[in-house]
Amino acid sequence: MAKADTSEDREKMGTQSRGNWSWFFWAIMVVHCVAILIFTRGFLLTRTELPYHSNCSDIRSSPCLFDSDTNLNNNNNNQSRSDQFCWTRPAVNRLVIIVLDALRFDFVAPSTFFEEPKPWMDKLLVLQRLASERNSSARIFRAIADPPTTSLQRLKGLTTGGLPTFIDVGNSFGAPAIVEDNLIHQLVLNGKKVVMMGDDTWIQLFPRHFAKSYPFPSFNVKDLHTVDNGCIDHLLPALYEEDWDVLIAHFLGVDHAGHIFGVDSMPMIEKLKQYNSILERVIGVLESQSGPGGLHENTFFLVMGDHGQTLNGDHGGGGAEEVETSIFAMSFKKPPAPTPSEFDSSFCQLDLDQKNMCIGSVQQLDFAVTVSALLGVSFPFGSIGLVNPELYALAGGTWDLKGPTSNCQKQSKLGEWMGNYVNVLCINSWQVKRYIDIYSASSVIGFSSEDLSQVSNLYAQAEEDWSSTKRLLLPEHESCNASSTTFKRQIDAYFSFLSSVAELARSKWTEFNLGMMAVGFGIMLISLFMHFFAIKMVSKSSGLCLPSSVDSDFPTLFIFTLFMVMIRALSFLSNSYILEEGKVANFLLATTGIVRLRYSIRENKRLIEAVAFLLLISILRFAIEVGLSKQAATSAFMNANPSWSIGFSISYHLSTCIAEIVSILALIVLACMQYKTVADRVCCGVYKYVIVATIFSYMLIAVHWALESNLVDFVLLLQGVRRNFIPRIIYAIGFGQLLLLVLGQLLEKETTLNCARSLFIKTVAMLSACSSTVIILSGTQGPLIALACIIGGHSIARLQSVEHNMKDKTPGISTSNPLSVIQWSLLAVCLFFSSGHWCAFDGLRYGAAFIGFDEFVLIRQAILLTIDTFGFSHILPVFGLAYLVSCQDLSGHQTDQEKFLIFMKLTQMYMIYGLITATAVTATVLCVTLQRRHLMVWGLFAPKFVFDVVGLILTDILICLASTYYFSQVKNRDVPQNQITEK
Amino acid sequence: MNVKKDGFVEPSSSENAGSGAEISVSQACIINLACALALATGFFTARNFYSVTLVSNPSLTLLLILVIESPVVILTYSWFRQNPDKCSYFRAVGRGVLGLPFGALVNAFGAIALGSPVGTQYLPKTLNWSLLMSLFTCVPAASVFGSAWSEWQRLFAHTKPKGSLDYLICIPAHGAVIGAWFGAWPMPLDWERPWQEWPICVANGALIGYLVGMVVSVGFILVNGRRQHLKAD
């Protein structure tokens, strides 16, 4: 009787707490969200966008010379012209900008500038030829972009002349219109007509600015030609038209070819050759119209990249390959202007034809203001760049020089140019100073006062000299001898001011809000303690003592687990360990595997599983290394030294064939395993259908791959339909399966089944429902990784009870094993890396978002990308965690109390899993805080932070879903159980 | 002098019979000193006669240490073999020699699972390193116990050394493994030091762990001996 009472008590307590625990998972998710939100607000760059715009009349408040000054002295014949321009004298009338997305520097520069020629070099020969033949009117520049190097950020940076912030990366999928003052806005304000063709990102950024636009969808990376052909169709006719002042043509082919095929590939080389011929034609047209009175008499021609790309075709980070792009500039004015050699940042070398050729250097930051100066429009308000002397000089000497300096007859043309340039720099510095002042006045956290005073001092110094220099520029001044050196000194003073502002902006634009960061971190810490106490309470309420006296190994195991978690957490302090995170996880997983092996040797049990687990880890580590070498090829921080070199030299086709066949075989094995589950167990209703549907999905996947790789050639009839049809069916089946599971959850009432067994079947059904979608998104490696996942999970589950069963006489009551949970979590991390992902935005497999779909829809593609990225590392492991519990207790009939214990154990396991994930993320948060001034903070720590945070929230959500899915069974069972005990 | 402990009869060192698990403190010191001296000689030979160090040529250095250390270890531990009546000295030496490649296989497997680089250029390094690790971990046990699985299990899975010889085998072996494990930590760091290469820092860690293990084992034997004396009194 007494026994019955206690069990009844326990049961009541259980029902009480059971509700509580499900609630706990939701609560912890909310706490995590709040903590992360607060921390992110403090950590990720926030630059205040100022709503002010520059106006033509603003110039009157500057100390510099502006046109009305000269008008006073010159004859009034300039009066009509002064209406057309504002701050600077326009040097060019029309501007043609051809943007080639992801144009690497070595696509443009001659191969002699590099250590060894590569197949993709020297393809844009027309640019090289012009740059060497007409070195005074055409030049190639190395253009340095600022990270993040994604198209949207770069276009924003190019047009505003500012530094776009990191958080904008998230907006790259749905570009918002630019609200800040920018080049395009200024052009429109000054009555220039802008025509745009190509990448539709421009339309998103500038929805109302263009006089004419021909946008083409940019997000389908598989499509190399739509945008380019659209550009070509409209570009050449537009060159003969008169109704525009600025023409922008944005080609995307190189970017897409890089994303899909990589730089060293035939499609890339063909694209470059195509561009070469297009550029030849464009230049031919411009040339033919450039005579006196022609359409392009005073046209400036720019071919530029918005960012570079790595050899894999990725971009986004701050690596040298990603930030180095190129600008080719050419003026059609004849005769060419003199170039001031003093400001050359160029380096010269012999080109392919053994001619000397010089290549300049430009910051992309300077682009907006330089172009504004050339076209004579007011500079964008928020621009912090400087007017680049070389780029400006290419066209800047092409006025009909009747300017203020023209009455100094003896002065060389160069001197005139410098006089003009000094004035432009004066305006430039004044505009930047104005922006800095207003920014620090209106922004909550501006620049620090000492930095501001240093910048102000530099400006004051430059201004001091200006008053004397200004006199030299005024027309009445006659002595021209001293002017050149004075100008030079003045220019240097402005340079030092402007460069210090740019440096300041680059270094300090990260407005870390330390208070918010500390609050966020504190909440994360509190959540960890909540987690920990919840685990303790669960073990207490269910009678499972954590520091168990039953098992002498338990404290050691507990300490060992804690040690592993701590090592992993602390490893995030170093950038090297973050880079090699996959290897670190593998190392720790292997260590736990060895400890397991030791236990199984001790008990002389399950040796095969232990060794198989170690073997699996050894295989996984090779997969991780392959992934790492892929990352190393793209990352600026890693040097690629693949310690595992593939000795075979199989032809490409054969190796892909083998990969296909192996993965299809693995799929068949998976299907067989599932079939066995259906056949073996008493598998009731819904779950049976779910598993059968998965087997059908697997068959479809196999067919899909066979069709994709053309292993089977005879079904070419279905060309149009087949590519997207099968994946969509699979998604639909997966969704249907999930719905079916939910419905089954609601309908299922019978309690005939063994509790653990039904849990097992539920787990298998859930996993199989998720697996087909995850596998098709991961491509041919999918089934292999799924197989590894199953083997690993099975070994962990089988091994977890090794150290208990000898001592515990009642197998059902063994407490949940923290070592198994950390193994599970480390295995999940290893699977993330071995499936070819890594914590960087170029590690996302964008191709996966387009399996089954051709056109881009933000939410749909984002969901697919998330499933691909986190499928094997978060979705499957979280749902599969129940397998650990269910597998252990498969045999025998359980009493009610044991049934209850199984679910408490499951709760506890989910809590431990959540705690491990949250600990890792807390460590990441701490490390990001400590390393916030680190060189690689944006290249390495911030992406890692974003990935971890997304992973944590996803894990929390999945745990909540899993707990409602698995625990609802308990609630269904509670009623009969309690009735029985009451009787 | 026979002492009952855990129901296990400890034979005195003078008899050297039964399990052979008991040796005196001075003997333990001599064994450890011999092994340590052999290690030092190995390093000395490598540096002075072949002018290589662990950093400049890890493979050759490890091989030299191995060549000098292995006879010392095998010959000394074979002297304290279990059941000397049933097992001749040469048989024990043979067991030790056989244990060397076997232990190397186990160690190499562990290292590869933990992430040591694999490839043709790493093969000799991995081979020599794992042979040396085998010498530290498996060979003494192989010489003393042969293929007695229960003894291996007791020493390496349970870590329950009972006599002073057990301490002498068990603790340095564990020290070497744990040292090697910690030695792998600096490998991924971007310090660009030559010693971060596989297997230099791992070998260094193993050596340090082994030496520490030797000292600790002598300490344990001392404490154990004193306790037994006290108990006997």
From TrEMBL, chain A:
- Identify the GO cellular component terms for this protein: endoplasmic reticulum membrane
Where is it located? Endoplasmic reticulum membrane
Q: Which UniProt keywords apply?
A: Endoplasmic reticulum, Glycoprotein, GPI-anchor biosynthesis, Membrane, Transferase, Transmembrane, Transmembrane helix
How the protein sits in the membrane?
A: Multi-pass membrane protein
- Quote the InterPro entries the UniProt record gives: Alkaline_phosphatase_core_sf, Phosphodiest/P_Trfase, PIG-O_N, PIGO/GPI13
Keyword check for Transferase, yes or no.
yes
Cite the Pfam families for this sequence: Phosphodiest (PF01663)
Query: What's a GO biological-process term for it?
Result: GPI anchor biosynthetic process
- Official protein name in the record: GPI ethanolamine phosphate transferase 3 isoform X1
- Coiled-coil intervals: none
Family according to the record = Belongs to the PIGG/PIGN/PIGO family. PIGO subfamily.
Pathway given in the UniProt record: Glycolipid biosynthesis; glycosylphosphatidylinositol-anchor biosynthesis
Which residue ranges traverse the bilayer?
A: 23-44, 514-534, 554-573, 607-624, 644-673, 685-705, 725-747, 821-841, 862-885, 910-930, 945-967
Q: Which GO terms describe its molecular function?
A: mannose-ethanolamine phosphotransferase activity
The record lists the organism as Tripterygium wilfordii
UniProtKB/TrEMBL annotation, chain B:
**Keywords tagged on the record:** Endoplasmic reticulum, GPI-anchor biosynthesis, Membrane, Transmembrane, Transmembrane helix
- Quick check: keyword Membrane in the entry? yes
According to the record, the signal peptide region is none
Principal localization? Answer: endoplasmic reticulum
Is Transmembrane helix tagged as a keyword? yes
Q: Where in the cell is it found?
A: Endoplasmic reticulum membrane
Q: Hey, which pathway is this one from?
A: Glycolipid biosynthesis; glycosylphosphatidylinositol-anchor biosynthesis
> What sections of the protein cross the membrane?
29-50, 62-80, 92-115, 127-146, 167-185, 205-223
GO biological process annotations for this chain's record? GPI anchor biosynthetic process
Task: Give the record's membrane topology.
Answer: Multi-pass membrane protein
Where does it sit, as one GO cellular component term? endoplasmic reticulum membrane
> Which InterPro entries does the record match to this protein?
GPI_biosynthesis_protein_Pig-F (IPR009580)
According to UniProt, the name of this protein is: Phosphatidylinositol-glycan biosynthesis class F protein
